[in-house]
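Researcher: For the record, we're logging two predictions in this thread. I'll number them. Prediction 1 follows.
Model: Prediction 1, sequence and structure:
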Amino acid sequence: MELLKNLKWRYATKKFDTTKKVSSDDLEKLKEAVQLSVSSYGLQLYKVLIIENIEIREQLKPVSWNQSQITDSSHLFVFCNYIDVSDNAIDDFIKQTAEIRGLDLERLNGYGDFIKTKLAEKSQEEKTSWLKSQIYIALGNLLNACAELKIDACPMEGFEPEAYNKILNLEAQGLNAVVIAPVGYRHQEDHTIGAKKVRKPFNLLFQEI
């Protein structure tokens, strides 16, 4: 199983090689992997910023605990959830579904109303947690795709979301930064290269019933 080999190969890269860049072809593959991620109701209520501009990343570094991955990587993925769920977003999803699958829009309106009803039952705190949770599925797909392409990545929560929101003007777009992932290629001086993975053994991690 190649996936297992790839997962054993990857690790959270701490030092990137600044001389190596992810190709445009590989970047498109990473984007498609994220695009194909599953999400609750299929809504994908998030946006992913892919930042290559070094000047912007220099601004983000101090509010990312001054971690070198922010500026040394090839690209920085910033996963953002929409702050709230609008009825328009659900209507757009239903319309898109009808168009892509060649279905009568009227047949799908009931499903759209069902989604709106279920989300209206959530408190704002529950809704915020739900919106953020969807992002981590997409992040997982990014990491797996990187591993298959032998591209290094480092998922990170060590940053100040409020500062990212301000620097990247996210709130004006109704967005909130949740998690980031620099991608690129490991530097041979990265002290964590070759470190054995520390994972729970099967007997502690799984329970078969």
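Researcher: Logged. Prediction 2.
Model: Prediction 2, sequence and structure:
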Amino acid sequence: MNFDLRLPIGLLFSILGVLLSVFGLLTPAELYRKSLGLNMNLWCGALILVFGAVMLGFALRARRAEMK
């Protein structure tokens, strides 16, 4: 079995995305006045989480193809 770099990258970005999204959900709204009312922590966390999930999906798909 070869080392697939997509697995640790996917895990790292997924954990970071979850942490950033949770922080965005738990912070008060007045913190985001400077960013025109946009909760950038939540949006960026969701985007990072999606990237991590895609990397995990690619890693799992490659692992399944390797087993066949």
